[in-house]
Design brief:
The chain contains 15 helices and eight strands. By secondary structure, it is of the alpha/beta class.
Length: about 425
Amino acid sequence: MKKTFREYHQYTTQEFKALWEKCLFVFDANTLLNMYRYSRKTVDIYFKVLTKLKENKQLWIPYRVGYEFYENRINVISEYEKSYDAILGVLENAKREIETKYKNHPFLDLKKINLKVNEGLSSTEALIKEAKGKHPNWLENDEVLEKINELFKGNIGENYDNEKLCEIKKEGTERYDKKIPPGFKDNKKDDNKKFGDLILWYQIIDKAKESKRPIVFISGDVKEDWWLEENGKRLMPLPQLKKEMHEKASVDFHIYTADRFLTLNKTDGKQIDEKTIKEVRKIRELEEKRMQMRRMDLIERDRNRELKHRNFEKYSMEYIHFFRELERLFMEISDSKIRLECKDELDHMFNNLRGLRNQIMHGRIDINILDMLYKHTKEISFTLERAAHLGDIHPRLSMRIREYIDRLEHLTRQFRRHF
């Protein structure tokens, strides 16, 4: 059983030991980008571990990792540079809110309170500004980038040509429809990003085939299209991934988070200190939360888009029905004894309405179109009321068009409330 279904079994202690001795350690882009988030001491320890792996010829990254690292590097650097000003902004807003929101409080001396608040926060603001001044200017002098380039020189895979990438994207569409990992959780991303994990995966498999060495992947990606989880605890890579790796490259595959990898790693026979492990774990957990929030935002955005689409369909049908009734009324008006100049004027106005109706029928409905619709219908109403006043048409027709104006006003209010 175990041999036949090996992908469902955890490695034994002896198997793990053999895995670490023979494997290639492959690092994901997020683990490299986190070097900009760690303290300098932790970065030095981490780089020492990677240097040892390079000396042992066990360090490698796919081309896709390098690409994603460079694509996201500036954003990660800017994120921390902006955080100082963001924190100072929070403190400034708090002071401003006290001054404006409670300026007329009958039982508080706001002048004294503001003085105390400013005194208490001034030292805090000074510390933040001092830290900002000491923050590394990585856009001008990036020692992290230099070290990463040095480590992975000669240890990075080749890119696929366009023909191969198109082939993977075609396969990816079929895999994602069947929920075959990895990458199907990115299916809602645009085409430039949705197949990133799959391209990465194929590049890792190709390296495993070529080197005939097992793969240990160090990643901060926590989506369920990589990990087998039970009650929120990650147990091992998905069995489908382990099976595909073994079927295509005849080697084993395993995944660690960065903190777990460092916990098990021994550089020069020594374990890495717990403080470093905790920092790496904390950064990883913070990034997990951010990614989860981003995914939740995407889900909410998709839900709102779907709801909006359904509402658009609903309102489009209501407006089309409204036009049909208005057309019948207009035929009735045309048959009445109305003056020629009024008739020509109404023909012109109703042609404008027909143009708007065609746009709505093709799904182009927005508040600008509704404003134009309302404007033209009001003009028709005004012209009919004038004709009724001159005795050219029966007042009943003018009253009916007024009813249509009221309905249109109601529809427009409803539309504005939803959109």
